[in-house]
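Protein modeling request. Please complete all fields; requests missing the sequence field cannot be processed.
Requester role: graduate student
Desired output: 3D structure, token encoding
Chains: 1
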Amino acid sequence: MISTPPRRLGGFAMALVAATLGLSGCGKESGYQTQPPQPTEPTISQASVQDLCGILDGQKGTWKALGPRVARVAFTGAVRLWTVNDTVANAAISYNRRIVDTVTIRTCPQVRDATVKALDVPDLKAALGGF
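Delivered output (131 residues):
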């Protein structure tokens, strides 16, 4: 019979214990998040929504004179400029394009309705190009 030096046997035992401990951590509760965090919709401030309503109110006559096709391009440009000044609004539109309709219905429904009519669209979401 070949005898194994005690030093080798001790090293083998340590490796076996380490492997056992390592595998015992492979259960269902690994401590790691299994699903990525879900994004939350950014909230546009009321002051920013008021700015948007002011922009829409100031431009609706011009957009009516331009005609719907050109007005939709101008509308997208106006919203784009608004979002340059408010990065939260930009993020909110990227998250949910319908947010422009939602905030304008709550804050300035008459202005929104006039804008929708001037742009000849069912809602403002439909007029947002390039977002």
